[in-house]
Amino acid sequence: MDQGTAGLLAAGGGDEASPLMLAGATHLDLSSAGDWFALLKPRVVALVVFTGLVGLLVAPGHLNPVLGFTAVLCIAVAAGAAGALNMWYERDIDALMRRTANRPIPAGRIAPAQALGFGLTLAAGSVVVMGLTVNLFAAAILALSIGFYVGIYTVWLKRRTPQNIVIGGAAGAFPPLIGWAAVTGRLDLLPLLMFAIIFFWTPPHFWSLALWAHGDYARAGVPMLPVVAGPRATRRHVFLYTLVLAPLSVLPWPLHLAGPVYGLAAAALGAGFVAGAWQVLRDRQDADGRSLTRDAPARMLFRYSLLYLAVLFAALAADRLIG
Predict the structure, then answer these.
(1) To 10 degrees, the CA torsion angle through 318, 319, 321, 323?
(2) Which of 63, 117, 184, 260 has its CA 20 to 30 A from that of 11?
(3) pLDDT band of 285, cuts 50, 70, 90
(4) Tell me: the pLDDT tens digits for 56-94?
């Protein structure tokens, strides 16, 4: 028996601890560093950090490498904080969905109050450090991105409208603005186009996931588009947003904000996205949204969309470094 457990037993009186004490000890034993890391939504953070880093790399001017690392670290911490606050607020619906039921809070490995304190601390710390070390404008956009994701998307939109991911998609589009602002202290046309690309990328990306996982949202009562409007309407929306995204992503090239390396990559990637969205549009699905075809085009498009954004932004960074 370690000293901490002995102290709990002593506080409970005699050889037996109170149920509350034992519950606390069990909770401490079950919580692990992996659970706290999972609370940050690391896969989401990775993409957020990458797009923020590209915004920083393509911005004109020079930023001290230490300050550049600090800016990227603040973006990562802020994204993780937003993820933790999202999990804290959505712990009730997470418990109802198979895809999220084993997350640390609904599974009982982290207490809601602890998750809330963790998220708030990280959020405040990231904004303060960004403001003190980089510049106040970048810190203000960072704070806006956290507030938008948690307050606008998570609290206000997600449980109220099937257009939640359309408006809420702006939350994930802030990182390039933050990276650019960290270097320049202002915003220009290119970061705004990067913002628009992520904004229009988000609906077809997320609705592709929702098409083959919408049963979870239906059980939890979340009005995602496939639940409210059905799979057929959702597939149309996926295709239409992709038709806007593909030419938009090429636009920095004719506007002379990027060179041919980016332009050709964007054209090829956009053509692939349109082809995948066309397959989703033509897919036959039953009333529950389950694909009747072997290839499950929605699942394939979801995976392609992740590759699309990563390669597109990598091409932008490579184009700027070459140019």
Answers:
(1) 160
(2) 117
(3) low
(4) 999 998 899 999 999 999 999 999 999 999 999 999 998
Q: Quote the CA–CA distance of 51 and 178 in Å, as a whole number.
A: 10
The type of residue at 212 is: W
The pTM assigned to this predicted structure is: 0.86
State both tokens at 236. 């149309």
The answer to whether 292 and 284 are in contact (CB under 8 A) is yes
Nearest to 90, CA basis, from 142, 26, 41, 24: 41
Q: Which tokens go with 322? A: 């070459």
Q: Domain residues of the chain, as ranges?
A: 30-185, 188-323
| Side-chain-side CA neighbours of residue 241 (13 Å) | 25
Alpha carbons 242 and 205: distance in angstroms, whole number? 9
218 CB-contact burial (10 Å; exposed 0-12 / middle 13-18 / buried 19+): middle
- Topology of domain 30-185 in CATH is Tetracycline Repressor; domain 2 (1.10.357)
Residues 289, 298 contacting (CB under 8 angstroms): no
- CB-count burial class (<10 Å; 0-12, 13-18, 19+) for 154: buried
